[in-house]
Amino acid sequence: MQGLTEFLPVSSSGHLSLVPWFFGWDDFGSDQALEDAFDVALHIGTLFGAAAYLRVDLARYIGAGLRWIRIGGPPVGDARLACLLGLTAVITAALGLVVMAVGGDLGDRTWVVAAALIGFGLLMWVFDRRPGLLPGSGPSHKAATMEDLTFRRATWLGVAQGLALQPGVSRSGVVLTMARGMGMERSEAARLSFLMGLPVIAGAGLASSFNLSVAAGWWAPFAVGMLASAVSGWIAVNLLLRVVARSGLGGFAAYRVAVGVVVLGLLISGVR
Known about the structure:
The protein is mainly α. The protein has one domain (2-269). Helix content is 73%, strand content 0%. The chain is built from 11 helices and no strands. Helix 4 (55-71) packs across helix 5 (78-102). It starts with a helix and ends with a helix.
């Protein structure tokens, strides 16, 4: 579940919250520290799977960024894009630190997760059908690419990605929505969401790992979970690129709304 939903625009954190709630799972015996450690392990597995798929892009932009640091001067070409991707990660990380400092568990209110699935699903549907709606997106007939990123656009993309700290929003979903609103072509928007997500996932995993430990007897389940998330994450990246190029984001938007409506119905009826 984590591997598939991390890069599909349906919210991995929302699903990690809703699936145990729906089935009544309590696999960790209410040990929140152990559950948090397992979630971190799943995210690390996803990171490895996606990085394996995107290894060519990663080598390209990391190499360009390192060469720019060594040589200096104004960044151009791949080095410029590497700097802008880094900017999005810094902005997202800053927002994350603020939330960690002043907020609690953002996924403990199921109705909020459901509402975020519905609301941001509808936004995704609107922006995907009518790209270029955001101010300054340029002529709607000319699809933008990653090379068209500017400092201003990268800043807004980093802020948008920070909204995904709320389970149900979806990190990849909100980046895809914002990129489409800027007039970016679908496949380019998907590729951008992957590259923006990798440093954020890596940084979140590193920051969370300092206070986490794996209890005795849990190493095997952790290893299986990491492997499952790595393989399914690799599949999800491949799947999203194919589906988005062929069919757009409408199916994902419909799925989000359907899941949100079902969850709210279960809550209102008292079934769960």
